[in-house]
Design a protein that fits this description.
about 25% strand, Aminopeptidase, elongated, 17 strands, alpha/beta, binds zinc ion, single chain, about 425 residues
């Protein structure tokens, strides 16, 4: 780029890689545009899958000096779900860091909410707008350009580095990382570490290392429907259900363990949706259905929570002469947390401080992410990006300065500590 100073030849590898990334901003933006153009909505959401996008990225990597790409393709009812793998050896062959991003995107949703075609990237000052530009092309582009900055400058990575571009993240990873772990165990070594640049916050201070168990319950109470003028002849399911909602607050006391890594630091048990009952005011409802969204700290057994809920139901059944049932609508058990002291976490924190001047903190979140699959398989994983979190929204966007900055963070991690010969 015109006017940009070249770093001196004796500059550190990081300074050279960072300058190279800045000088290639237009190429980062161009790659975002090309990836956006290739619709990679999964077949389960009515899309074509990742084949075209993966084919383009594979060709791009080959044309840009990367080592040969391994393509591992799962099949979902005949639709190919390709996963791409690139590895580069480093100085320390006993260590390997993987950077994992996903190729698939979610559908654009209501097109009326988009200001422009979701699959044609639009540049708006320092912003890029389009489906997938953040989720997860920011990860794809930043990790690819980080590694390219090393390759282009003749910088050997500090340890083995792998890039994984996986399929099917948005609908459970059965044809993505879970499929790779099950069907291609030869890819991974027990000591491997992972960075997943697929979530974060606006200033880059969130390094996600832990997740809570997700447990969604449907609670149904059956009484007896009668005319509202004769309540003594019926059993008001609404009253019984309401009593149940209030009694379920006891879950907060029963499971009151705190873990400061999470925000909020405790398990949460919140009644949310309630189904409509009778349509008229003069009928006592015979059925009541509500739902509870539980986010449970890792280490608290789901069975213990369910047993407590069922115990409360028995009390309400006795008091109101109704029948209660509890169904698990969704359950995703938390993976063991990655310790904040894990090397890959400390590396992210160090590189974020160097590039952005921000102190990133290892934190837990309430939901489940793709990282859980890797943590369940025993790998340390840190989820990190600097982004506004516009994933899945209309007019999804990324900031170009974040693309540049995140690429520098990953390049710094890949370079590692330079040990001077003495
Ligand atoms: Zn994502």
């Amino acid at each position: 780029m015109a006017g940009r100073k070249k770093p001196p030849a004796d500059a550190t590898p990081f300074v050279r890689a960072a300058a190279w990334i800045e000088a290639h901003q237009d190429d980062l933006v161009a790659l975002e545009a090309e990836l956006t153009r290739r619709n990679a909505v999964g077949p389960g959401s009515g899309g074509p899958g990742e084949a075209e996008k993966a084919g383009f990225l594979e060709a791009w990597l080959a044309a840009n000096g990367f080592p040969p790409v391994t393509r591992l393709t799962a099949s979902e009812n005949g639709v190919p779900r390709p996963n791409l793998v690139v590895t580069v050896p480093g100085r320390d062959r006993t260590r390997r860091i993987w950077f994992m991003s996903h190729l698939d995107v979610v559908p654009p949703g209501d097109l009326a909410l988009w200001k422009s075609d979701p699959f044609v990237m639009r540049k708006e000052g320092e912003k890029l707008v389009g489906r997938g530009v953040e989720d997860n092309q920011q990860g794809i582009v930043c990790t690819a350009f980080a590694l390219k900055a090393l390759l282009a400058n003749g910088v050997e990575p500090g340890c083995d580095v792998g890039l994984l571009f996986v399929a099917d993240e948005e609908s459970g990873s059965a044809y993505g990382i879970r499929w790779l772990l099950d069907n291609h165990p030869e890819l991974f070594r027990p000591e491997d570490e992972f960075v997943v640049p697929d979530a974060g916050n606006e200033d880059g201070s969130l390094a996600e290392v832990a997740e809570k168990t997700i447990l969604w319950l449907k609670v149904r109470t059956v009484g007896k429907q009668v005319h509202a003028s004769t309540p003594h002849l019926g059993k008001n399911a609404f009253v019984a259900g309401a009593s149940l909602v209030v009694k379920l607050r006891a879950l907060y006391e029963q499971f009151d363990r705190r873990d400061p890594i999470f925000d909020p630091p405790m398990s949460t048990f919140e009644p949310t949706r309630r189904e409509a009952n009778v349509a008229n005011i003069n009928t006592i409802p015979g059925e009541d259905v509500f739902y509870v969204d539980c986010r449970v700290l890792p280490g608290i057994p789901v069975e213990a929570v369910l047993a407590h809920v069922r115990g409360i139901c028995v009390d309400v059944e006795r008091a109101h002469r109704v029948v209660c049932s509890v169904d698990v609508v969704q359950r995703e058990d938390a993976a063991p947390a990655t310790p904040a002291s894990a090397r890959v976490v400390r590396d992210v924190v160090k590189s974020v401080r160097r590039v952005y001047g921000v102190d990133a903190k290892a934190r837990g979140i309430g939901g489940g992410t793709v990282a859980g699959n890797l943590r369940k398989a025993g790998y340390p994983v840190v989820v990190w990006s600097r982004m506004d979190e516009t994933a899945h929204q209309p007019n999804e966007y990324v900031w170009i300065p974040n693309l540049i900055g995140d690429a520098k963070v990953f390049a710094d991690m890949m370079i590692g500590e330079i040990v001077e010969d003495t």
